[in-house]
């Protein structure tokens, strides 16, 4: 009997991830809705990159679909690969300080602006980035 391929053997799925950052350094985190893997965990919003779509275009599309927010500009920040039990993902993180609209819960997800991150649990691939992100958010040079 043939065994199913594990997530680690699968080609990584490209995911565009956005960090909305307010002038005071607060960032937006969203809670994964029921029915999705890691439901209830907090993450930065985003989603899968469609075939033929650039990462930035995917980010802009996902933010309109999930939060009703139009990203006006975003800069690439970092990339992370992570193997979850259900998927091998390649996360492309962008920071946006310029957007139009106020976030809305278009997919029934909770979201919260955070200075010092107080929500839990945090999605595992996101945890190692929080300390580096804090340096970026509060760097006054």
TrEMBL record:
Its EC number is 3.6.1.55. It catalyses: 8-oxo-GTP + H2O = 8-oxo-GMP + diphosphate + H(+); 8-oxo-dGTP + H2O = 8-oxo-dGMP + diphosphate + H(+). Keywords: DNA damage, DNA repair, DNA replication, Hydrolase, Magnesium, Metal-binding, Mutator protein. GO terms for molecular function: 8-oxo-7,8-dihydrodeoxyguanosine triphosphate pyrophosphatase activity; 8-oxo-7,8-dihydroguanosine triphosphate pyrophosphatase activity; 8-oxo-dGDP phosphatase activity; 8-oxo-GDP phosphatase activity; metal ion binding. Its cofactor is Mg(2+). Pfam families: NUDIX_4 (PF14815). Residues 12-136 form the Nudix hydrolase domain. The keyword DNA damage applies. One of its GO terms (biological process) is DNA replication. Belongs to the Nudix hydrolase family. This is 8-oxo-dGTP diphosphatase.
């Amino acid at each position: 009997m043939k065994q199913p391929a594990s997530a680690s053997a699968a080609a990584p799925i490209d995911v565009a991830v956005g960090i909305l950052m307010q002038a005071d350094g607060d960032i937006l985190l969203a809670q994964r809705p029921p029915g999705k893997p890691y439901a209830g965990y907090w993450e930065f919003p985003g989603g899968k990159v469609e075939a033929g779509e650039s990462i930035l275009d995917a980010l802009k599309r996902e933010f309109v679909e999930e939060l009703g927010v139009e990203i006006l500009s975003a800069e690439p920040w970092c990339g992370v690969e992570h193997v979850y039990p259900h998927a091998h993902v390649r996360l492309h993180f962008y920071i946006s300080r310029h957007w139009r609209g106020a976030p809305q819960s278009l997919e029934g997800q909770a979201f919260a602006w955070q200075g010092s991150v107080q929500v839990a649990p945090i999605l595992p691939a996101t945890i190692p980035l929080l300390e580096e992100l804090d340096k970026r958010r509060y760097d006054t040079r």
